[in-house]
Amino acid sequence: MKTKKLVQLSLLTAIALSIFIVELQIPNPFPFPGIKLGLANIVTLYVIYRYRAKEALLVLMARIILGSLFSGNLMAIMYSLAGGICCFVVMSVLHDKIEEKYIFIVSILGACAHNIGQIIIAIFITKTLAIMMYLPWLLLSAMITGLFIGLCKQYLLKSRAILKKKKKIL
Fold this sequence. Notes:
Layout: H1 3-24, H2 41-50, H3 53-71, H4 76-95, H5 103-126, H6 135-169
């Protein structure tokens, strides 16, 4: 990997990790635990569309592992890894099939996959299927937050294109 790309990916990892840590400080306004915006996924989505899948996976894994260490919640690493990997697989597969202008769809489906991965781990840990009753609420929140993250990423793409045009004019 070239030095420039390594530095870019390192900065993106640091940004995602910073967003993740800041988001942990925001109280959960929902009556269900575990529901959050997932703002760090804006960076993951960006890396999936701008770099190769291998590099996006490296950024995601670094954010998950370091985020669990920095937050002091090592038990959450299993949930984060399961959700993150499921989300990554879905978004990586879909990014080739869905145009960038519909990136919000990729984000919504990735968020749903994230929650399904977390439910699977929860079933494995608790050894009960009763936790499946929580899934509809998680999927509803995933659709809302996934849409928000996708729209943020779309806005980021538009502002990047505007900056490129201005740079060419100057």
